[in-house]
Design goal:
alpha/beta, 2 domains, seven-stranded mixed beta sheet, 16 helices, 7 strands
């Protein structure tokens, strides 16, 4: 799979349009019907277009933007002329920077897995089939031991699987064993845990080759697995109880990465800017799939309503509330703390320059159930009760509300459209870093490491994080 050009990624991530989109969360715009919106200068053309769009089309403006985006990344030659020129330019930059997400061809069993959601079954079946094919290759034919690294936010549970493979069907009594270890994962802890496990297996003729898999490796766990892999690959084999043979790792939860230490990692992408928390939150978005089905469309529409209604709440508050501070309580009846963090927003106390969307009003309002967003009038009624103030709903056909709604919808979609390019930068940087670090690192000079980015899962099946990094 080809990786994005570092220059193209740099041009996108440093583009003023992207910077302004990321630094302005819809909640922070303070829109008002009594005054003009204070928006960045480079938004003016598309902002005006989005505001006037409801009167010119039966389809909302955000869907026109989304269709232009999907046409651009599909590279099918479809025109993006239905959207303003600044957005056409943005779509062109996005197209140049995104990695192809087409799933690779794998021969998979047709027998469904029981007790799993269709999404999880899709992932487990395809990953198992892919790893099985890898282990059949000549360079991995000697592998008998696989470490499955699973993770939560703070701890991981590596499942150590001792598998005996043979060219012919394996006898029932030689299918192998499964060992579970629960440890706090760091590169050193993972290394020592595997070392202890391989030592417990008993004497072996030389270091035991170990293959690593992870589905999914949250946040910094993915680069930590690779740091351990690189460190081990550089050791003298005779002094070790085991040696890395390969890996197939699927990362996730970019918002849990340590952006200061985990990006960029490679020399080739070293000039890319550091990623803010808003970058990492938006990297998980997959807008290309929003209109795939009635279900995905309804999910997207609900998510957008949540963003819009909260963004327009400030404009409908009584003036007395706007000019006096809100008392904030984020502690529920059972003593647990509830903190509202909108998608794409940095954590409280972050030094990131991007808009947070987590001001006093939204922290006081807290997280609301989906039903609260059935209509704007109902949302305001729920907000009135939560905030303890009377908020009047606008007339049903209020022109300002319709304009502002369309503008915020487009803003949110544009922010989400940046996400896949940000993810492309993260995974491409990891692949190139591994290639750089493993080049000539093996004591066995015959060994030449191959590192590939693989479209392992289909996002249409609900697998948002569909990339695997394979090492062999």
């Amino acid at each position: 799979m080809s990786l994005p050009n570092p220059a193209s990624l740099h041009a996108l991530l440093t583009h003023p349009q992207l910077a302004s989109l990321l630094s302005n969360h819809p909640n922070d715009l303070k829109l008002s019907s009594s005054s003009s919106a204070r928006i960045p200068h480079d938004w003016e053309e598309w902002w005006e277009w989005a505001g006037s769009y409801p009167g010119t089309s039966a389809e909302p403006a955000w869907k026109a933007v989304l269709r232009a985006y999907t046409s651009a990344i599909a590279k099918n030659g479809a025109s993006t002329a239905s959207i303003p020129e600044p957005l056409q330019e943005l779509m062109s930059r996005v197209k140049e920077s995104e990695v192809d997400r087409t799933p690779c061809s794998i021969s998979v069993p047709v027998t469904p897995l029981r007790g799993m959601s269709p999404k999880k079954a899709h992932e487990v079946i395809r990953m198992t089939a892919y790893v099985k094919e890898l282990l059949k290759t000549p360079e991995l034919s000697g592998v008998r031991h696989v470490v499955d690294v699973g993770a939560g936010q703070d701890a991981a549970a590596p499942s150590k699987k001792n598998r005996r493979r043979a060219p012919s069907p394996t006898p029932q009594n030689a299918r192998g064993t499964l060992t579970h270890k629960t440890v706090h994962i760091t590169p050193g802890a993972l290394d020592s845990t595997v070392s202890k496990w391989t030592t417990e297996l008993g004497p072996a003729d030389g270091p035991i080759p170990v293959f690593f898999v992870a589905l999914h490796a949250c946040g910094s766990l993915t680069p930590d697995i690779f740091r351990m892999f690189i460190s081990r690959a550089r050791r003298i084999r005779d002094a070790s109880s085991w040696t890395p043979a390969g890996a197939c790792i699927v990362g996730c939860c970019y918002n849990l990465m340590s952006s200061a230490h985990d990006f960029p990692l490679s020399t080739a992408y070293a000039d890319l800017p550091n990623l803010s928390e808003a970058h990492l939150q938006l990297a998980a978005q997959m807008p290309a799939r929003w209109l795939d089905s009635p279900t995905s469309r309804a999910t997207a529409e609900l998510a957008i309503r949540k963003i819009v209604y909260r963004a327009l709440l400030d404009a409908h508050l009584p003036q007395t509330v706007k000019t006096s501070p809100l008392s904030i309580s984020t502690t529920s009846e059972n003593g647990t703390t509830r903190v509202y963090r909108p998608r794409g927003a940095p954590a409280s106390g972050s030094t990131a320059t991007t808009g947070s969307g987590t001001g006093a009003l939204h922290r006081r309002l807290g997280k609301l159930p989906d039903g609260a967003y059935a209509s704007f009038a109902h949302f305001l009624a729920v907000a009135s009760e939560r905030l303890g103030v009377l908020i009047e709903a606008p007339p049903e056909e209020d022109e300002w509300f319709k304009r502002a709604q369309s503008q915020v919808e487009v803003l949110h979609v544009l922010r989400c459209i940046m996400g896949p390019s940000i993810e492309s930068a993260i995974v491409a940087d990891r692949v190139v870093w591994l290639r750089e670090a493993l080049r000539g690192s093996c004591v066995d000079e015959v060994k030449q490491w191959e590192v590939e980015l693989v479209g392992l899962f289909d996002q249409a099946a609900g697998s948002a994080r569909n990339f695997a990094i394979a090492i062999r």
